[in-house]
């Protein structure tokens, strides 16, 4: 996931990521401040830092840390589900005066372990192949974990659908029984009425 968004200096922006359990998440970000004179965003936002807060599906804070205007944060999920990742600048100005516009670039990698190419080049060919194989095995474990997570979600959705269908069926049966009961009661009432009026 790579994106950028605009934010006020004291404004908190959050994104939701659906992450399997026991998965490494790495986020790279860069903050740019709007320059009124240039009418453009500066390359950086010196003096500003970013508070990064990560909340688990059970509303537990997994990460809460202040970083600089550009950097990397990481965390490992221990629960599967929707994690909320929030970013907010550490501007000391009051909300009323913190009108400066910021652009935040955010790149989130889920379950990826980046290859350090300089390390790979420094090693001989055998070690390089071994290193790449370990990386591929790690990626396969991550894909397997993702598939298991998706399978769990699919199973949960199927159970919910089956329960809903079952409830609809029982409701239809109950409605039918009520309608039949009302029909029998109306026929009996009409018959008793005709008998009492000696029309039958």
From TrEMBL:
Annotated InterPro entries: Emp24-like, GOLD_dom
Compartment(s) of residence: Endoplasmic reticulum membrane; Membrane
Membrane-spanning parts: 168-187
Matches recorded under PANTHER family: TRANSMEMBRANE EMP24 DOMAIN-CONTAINING PROTEIN
Protein's membrane topology: Single-pass type I membrane protein
UniProt keyword list: Endoplasmic reticulum, Membrane, Signal, Transmembrane, Transmembrane helix
Organism, as annotated: Podilymbus podiceps
GO cellular component, one term: endoplasmic reticulum membrane
Name of the protein described by the UniProt record: TMD11 protein
Lineage: superkingdom: Eukaryota
Chief place where the protein resides: endoplasmic reticulum
Family, similarity comment: Belongs to the EMP24/GP25L family.
Domain GOLD span(s) in chain numbering: 12-110
């Amino acid at each position: 996931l790579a994106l950028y968004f605009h934010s006020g200096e004291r404004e908190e922006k959050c994104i939701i990521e659906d992450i399997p359990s026991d998965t490494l998440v790495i986020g790279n970000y860069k903050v740019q401040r709007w320059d009124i004179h240039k009418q453009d965003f500066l390359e950086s936002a010196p003096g500003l830092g970013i508070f990064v807060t990560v909340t688990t599906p059970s509303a537990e804070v997994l990460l809460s840390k202040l970083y600089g205007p550009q950097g990397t944060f990481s965390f490992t999920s221990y629960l599967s589900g929707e994690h909320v990742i929030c970013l907010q600048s550490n501007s000391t100005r009051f909300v009323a005066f913190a009108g400066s516009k910021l652009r935040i670039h955010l790149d989130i990698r889920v379950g990826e372990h980046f290859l350090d190419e300089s390390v790979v080049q420094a090693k001989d060919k055998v070690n390089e192949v071994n290193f790449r194989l370990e990386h591929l095995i790690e990626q396969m474990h991550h894909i397997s974990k993702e598939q298991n997570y998706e399978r769990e979600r699919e199973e949960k959705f199927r159970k919910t659908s089956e329960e809903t269908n079952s409830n609809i069926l029982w409701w239809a049966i109950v409605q039918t029984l009520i309608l039949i009961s009302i029909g029998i009661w109306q026929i009996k009432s009409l018959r008793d009425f005709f008998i009492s009026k000696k029309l039958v």
